[in-house]
Fold:
Amino acid sequence: MFRNAKREAGKEGQSRKGKMKLEVYADRMSQPSRAVIIFCKVNGIDYTELKVDISKREHLTPEFAEINPMKQLPAIVDGKFKLFESHSILIYLACAFPGVADHWYPADLFKRSKIHSVLYWHHSNLRRAADTYVTNTTILPTLGHPSNQQAAAEAEKLLFSSLSKIESFWLKGDGPFLLGGNQPSIADLSLVCELMQLEVLDEKDRDRFFGPYKKVQQWIKHTRNATSPHFDNVHIILMKVKEKLTNKPLMEANHGGARDIEKRWRSRM
Amino acid sequence: MFRNAKREAGKEGQSRKGKMKLEVYADRMSQPSRAVIIFCKVNGIDYTELKVDISKREHLTPEFAEINPMKQLPAIVDGKFKLFESHSILIYLACAFPGVADHWYPADLFKRSKIHSVLYWHHSNLRRAADTYVTNTTILPTLGHPSNQQAAAEAEKLLFSSLSKIESFWLKGDGPFLLGGNQPSIADLSLVCELMQLEVLDEKDRDRFFGPYKKVQQWIKHTRNATSPHFDNVHIILMKVKEKLTNKPLMEANHGGARDIEKRWRSRM
Structure:
């Protein structure tokens, strides 16, 4: 099914002898999908992007379960090797493709271990907070569904705490990136892509979160610049959602559009 | 403060020339702390265990914030290098100590990537489910506090789903360990230590969870045997809590004991 969907190959791809082209199964509505796609594009990895349309529930089909039995995006197939979970994919790509610059996932054990530390921390903090908050304050109310206020309040607290930790600890070094780096790592890309989903919040609410954190604001810009123009290109779909939410409340929009976005958001991973 | 607490060094320690002895900051009441301690013991890593007593809120002190600004356990200091998040610690130890057998964290990129996949999956599934369920069905009611029934119900669903995925997917290979391994990896150790906290549940409830999953039951036994006698020794504190919960309900126990356990559980990470 999704095999017939839009395919997009890297233009300046680096290929490996005797290897079939890497397949990336993704929907750009999912933030970890976007991180993997941006990573491939920035590093000139020769890949085929296979859209698994969440709004059409393609990720729940038996066909996709052959790729990822957890039915989540993104997933990759590299020859006979299948892998899911975006952080493990990013690490794999950085190691498997010799053209990827060291700063993305340094060979040095100490630097690499710190990046692991950020990535695991991210799972229990920023990822959990941002997702729960956006769902309960923006998506569900916009769609006219009841939201869990307690969950939103807890997520808000965790989101502030996560942003504060990024500002005061992960960004405390000399460089503009996490852990004091002068160039981004896979951790910068993953965390910034996560924060990008806050773009769909009401502007005042977004300012309330980001306002106190100047370093975080700069870091997002630096990550965006370091991965330009791919960062913006891959986020186009999110910006379209933001536009709809801002200018054209979904409840007042045509039903087809609202249903489409509802499906996308509800199935998001 | 915790520097004067109980110190326990590995007996058959492997040391590295010119390196100070590894310091492990832990409280055996925390399941990731137990995983790291068992790993050190099984692999004969020469370390000093520094107890950071959660019940005394030692993890929240400025002194411990110097070790881990996230104020969570476990954390390590290896010479000048500080690290937290148990999965990143386990990976670091497996790479930094040459005596650690390859099966714990294989050098092979494909095997290693699959282990990363399990570990990241674990964070958003089993870890979240087990923790939320135990807290809301056992700890809070035992202490006479109101619990969140909705959270417990969602956690129960995620816990069954996680166990089912372990049974049908992660354990589907020929070997007795995750990913078809014949020997355990750091993923086996981390996930089994997580499941061990279900020991404090009511027996019928525990049977309800584990009953349908025969492979999971066997896998826990295999992991325990492969890390014997350290596995049982490090879990003694959890078994004491289980005993108290089973034979002597906390609300009827002396207040000191109940308060002590409440503090421990409430501060658990």
Notes: Chain A has two domains: 2-100, 104-266. The first strand of chain A starts at residue 7 and ends at 9. Residues 3-13, 249-269 of chain A have pLDDT under 50 and may be disordered.
